[in-house]
Design a protein that fits this description.
The chain is of the alpha/beta class. Helix content is about 40%, strand content about 15%.
């Protein structure tokens, strides 16, 4: 379903490095890199404002491409500098009060949970943790029973940073709609490797990044906010792009999700991110999801067959992230030894996912994350390298 020769030709770095760090930052395909360079070259030759004027059609295409990617409306899309700030722009704008309750799960990312803790301290709301089911994912039945009149928000991570788990986002969405509770989904690790449809999932807010599975530039992110809830959120800061100064002592928010943007932004990155979304859509997210899941499962099975290696991924459905440990060797050491072999992986450590890893007694794990441009030959090479590490 995917022309692997073509996508690898579009990714010339494949010939130089074995890249299994797509959950950290993926390799940009040539069309994305070329789009980025085009704007930077214009900035260098004619100036930043002039380069932005030249790029207007691509800047506007950002909204339509992401609307198509997520099955949203262009007015529900905002460009934000990164996934955490996109999540923050929505969360910090919510009108939470003392006694309110916010539900999250043990797979939640550190930055999100730290924000929950900070605002809970400031505003006085309570944080509830939904338990996991036997697969380690959100227990949907338990979630349904936890919601009461004070429950105002469910803040869930679709795919956690520390493993291959895919939380049942659409089932959570059904619970959210049933009870009329706002639903914030962190899709930082899912958009680009999984077919994410906001209408099917039923989330009200979704945040994501460019640098991971979307294969876009660093310093880029995006935010989706459903039209029906946008007026429930008061952006934590505004400027002359996100609002109109209507009188000496008055202002109005601009229409749609652009109220979460700011005037000064990484124009080249915005154009590059648009091109990344277009590239992924041309391949087809369903095609990508199928191939990534197959490659990752082959990798899990192969690693599980190595003496002394344990694979730690949870979830009934799993994705392209594979985490493992090797007896007697620290994950950081494994990562460094693989790097000397021309193989890129990373480390998932407890400070990024304390609610999940601490109860499992895992201080850290080696994280290998595959993408559709990877191959079975690369998996075989990787497994041999892990054996030697």
């Amino acid at each position: 379903m995917i022309d692997i020769d073509k996508v690898r030709l579009d990714t010339p770095s494949c010939e130089k490095v074995l890249h299994f760090n797509n959950a950290g930052s993926s390799l940009m395909p040539t069309p994305v890199f070329s789009a980025l360079q085009r704007v930077l070259r214009d900035e260098n030759e004619v100036g930043g404002y002039e380069a932005e004027r030249r790029a207007q059609s691509d800047i506007q295409a950002f909204y339509s491409e992401f609307a198509g990617l997520l099955n949203a409306d262009p007015d529900e899309i905002a460009f934000v500098e990164n996934a955490t700030r996109a999540w923050d722009m929505a969360f910090y704008g919510l009108h939470l009060r003392p006694g309110d309750r916010v539900i999250t799960h043990g797979s939640e990312y550190a930055s999100n949970y730290l924000a929950l803790l900070q605002q809970s301290r400031r505003l006085g709301f309570e944080i509830d943790l939904v338990p996991s089911d036997e697969f380690g994912q959100i227990d949907v039945d338990a979630l349904d029973g936890m919601i009461g009149p004070k429950t105002k928000l469910m803040a869930i991570t679709h795919v956690p940073t520390q493993g291959g788990l895919v939380n049942p986002a659409a089932e959570v969405g059904k619970i959210a709609r049933k009870h009329g509770v706002l639903y914030l989904l962190d899709a930082c690790q899912s958009v680009g490797q999984i077919n994410v449809d906001v209408a099917e999932i039923g989330c009200d807010i979704l945040s994501g990044t460019g640098r991971k599975f979307l294969r876009g530039p660093r310093g880029t992110g995006f935010l989706y906010v459903r039209k029906g809830v946008i007026d429930q959120i008061d952006p934590p800061f505004i400027d002359l792009l996100s609002a109109k100064w209507t009188g000496t002592n008055s202002f109005e928010f601009v229409d749609g999700a652009k109220r979460f943007e700011n005037w000064e932004s990484y124009v080249a990155g915005r154009v590059g991110l648009m091109e990344a979304a277009r590239y992924a859509r041309n391949i087809g997210l369903s095609n990508i999801e199928t191939r990534v899941a197959l490659l990752a499962q082959d990798l899990r099975d192969a690693l599980a067959g190595i003496k002394g290696v344990s694979v730690h991924d949870l979830g009934q459905q799993k994705c392209g992230i594979v985490t493992f440990t090797k007896v007697g060797i620290e994950p950081a050491t494994v990562t460094e030894r693989l790097r000397t072999d021309g193989i890129n992986v990373s480390v998932s450590a407890m400070p990024s996912a304390r609610l999940d890893l601490e109860p499992r007694g895992l201080m850290s794990m080696t994280r290998a994350s595959v993408h559709y441009f990877n191959t079975h030959d690369e998996i075989a090479r990787f497994v041999d390298a892990v054996k030697r590490a």
